[in-house]
Structures are given as structure tokens and as C-alpha cells.
UniProtKB/TrEMBL annotation:
Keywords: Flavoprotein, FMN, Oxidoreductase. One of its GO terms (molecular function) is oxidoreductase activity. This is Nitroreductase domain-containing protein. The keyword Kinase does not apply. It comes from the Bacteria. Belongs to the nitroreductase family. Its cofactor is FMN. Residues 10-155 form the Nitroreductase domain. It comes from Dialister succinatiphilus YIT 11850.
Length: 178
């Protein structure tokens, strides 16, 4: 898919089918997350977990519902890509680095014809819990990792539609010319 087309059809998808994401597509999406430039070359302090275990995803939805009163934060997507950092990651760049990783994975999912959504709300909610919630403990990840951002991915009944560009953010050109 052409890059400009990917940008024009990119949207946050909140409806998924139960069809699993192929292992090949998971690998491509994770690779997109790994290909980011990380500030201060701090790659060793980040990790990505690709979660397809239905029990863990259900536990995440139940915990989020109990704590926030809101429903499933990943909208039933069959794949959750959890971006994590170690305690040694530079605090001032964690959200920036994780956000760039998430956007790369989000764009790759669109390129593959999949629906996706970048998510932070459940992380903010569950970070208040001891150990970042039972869902996180169920992952059995190495000690010290902390969730920073996530991307939910799956097949969707929604059709990718190109949006007409509408400038919504003020931009300024400073070029020194009079």
C-alpha cells in the first residue's frame, strides 16, 4: 500500500471479528515497532509483548471494567501488542518512545488491511493496581517491565475508507523571507 494511502485510511478501529491475526502479520507488526528510533539509543530499556491468549485478554477486560466502569479497552481485538519499559528507561522519553512504537505498529496494521487502535487508558487505570493488574502478572514477563502503551489489532468488518484531508492543526511557516 502506498504510504499516503495508509495515512488517509488510518483510523482507530473499535470493532473486530474473532478471526486471529496470522503469525506472519504479527511478526511484521512487531518488526515495525522495533524499527523505531528510540531516544538516546535506549533500546535495551523497552520490550514488546504480542498477546493472543484469550484468557489474558478476557482478564484484562474484566479488570478494566471493575476498576473504571468502562468496557473492554481493546474492543475484543484478538491481538494486543503491549509496549513496556524497564525502570532504567529515561522517564522524560518513555511516553514519546512508546508512542512512536505504537504508531509504527498501528500504521503497519493498516498497511496489512487490519484494524487497530493505539491505547493508553487501561494502562493508566491498571497502573494504579499492585503489579499493574492480574492480567499483567499472568503474562509471566521478566521482572521490572512496566506497561507504557498498547496497540490492539485484528480483522474488522469495517471497510478501509480514504478520508478527505482537512487541516485541523494550525501550522506556521517561518522561513526568514520577507
Amino acid at each position: 500500500m502506498e504510504f499516503d494511502h495508509v495515512l488517509s485510511v488510518r483510523c482507530s478501529v473499535r470493532r473486530y471479528t474473532e478471526e486471529p491475526v496470522s503469525e506472519e502479520d504479527i511478526q511484521k507488526i512487531v518488526k515495525a515497532g522495533e524499527e523505531v528510533p528510540v531516544g538516546h539509543f535506549d533500546f535495551k530499556n523497552y520490550a514488546i509483548a504480542a498477546i493472543t491468549d484469550k484468557k489474558v485478554l478476557r482478564l484484562l477486560a474484566e479488570e478494566n471494567q471493575a476498576l473504571s466502569g468502562r468496557g473492554d479497552p481493546i474492543y475484543g481485538a484478538p491481538l494486543l501488542l503491549l509496549i513496556m519499559n524497564t525502570p532504567e528507561a529515561r522517564e522524560d522519553s518513555i511516553k514519546l518512545n512508546a508512542g512512536i512504537m505504537a504508531e509504527n505498529m498501528h500504521l503497519k496494521a493498516v498497511d496489512l488491511g487490519l484494524g487497530s487502535i493505539c491505547i493508553y487508558s487501561f494502562i493508566r487505570t491498571l497502573n494504579r493496581e499492585e503489579g499493574y493488574g492480574k492480567y499483567f502478572q499472568a503474562l509471566h514477563l521478566p521482572e521490572g517491565l512496566k506497561p507504557a502503551m498498547a496497540v490492539a489489532v485484528g480483522h474488522t468488518p469495517m471497510v478501509q475508507r480514504e478520508r478527505r484531508f482537512v487541516a485541523r492543526i494550525p501550522t506556521f511557516r517561518i522561513d526568514g523571507k520577507e
